[in-house]
Amino acid sequence: MSTLKEQLAAANTIIAAREKERLQIYADSQVDEQEHPRLNVINRELEHVWDLKRRIEAAISAGLSELPVPPPAYPEDMIG
């Protein structure tokens, strides 16, 4: 199992990649029907990974070695 710092680095890598992909889609003057569903997937994934990142950062700040409460498996299960 990886450390919290390794998990944080992985989350940052995923966030950077998905944000880059989203920017590439928006770089077009129009978002076509094929790209629109992908944007929904990217946005849901970003929401989930950002939540994970915040949880990891909080655990690191608290001096923990693992996440006390992992994020839900599916972003739609998140409250708020």
Topology:
Elements: H1 4-27, H2 35-61
Helix pairs in contact: 1-2
Walkthrough of the structure:
The mean pLDDT is 86. It is built from two helices and no strands. By secondary structure, the chain is mostly helical. Helix content is 64%, strand content 0%.
Structure summary:
This protein is 64% helix and 0% strand. It is built from two helices and no strands.
Pick out its properties.
mainly alpha, about 80 residues, elongated
H/E element order:
HH
Number of beta-strand segments: 0
Largest sheet: none
Shape category: elongated
The parts where pLDDT drops under 50 for at least 5 residues are none
Mean pLDDT: 86
The portion of residues assigned to helices is 55-70%
Cα-based radius of gyration, to the nearest Å? 15 Å
Number of helices: 2
Percent range for β-strand residues? under 5%
Kindly name the structural category.
mainly alpha
The first-to-last residue Cα distance is: 30 Å
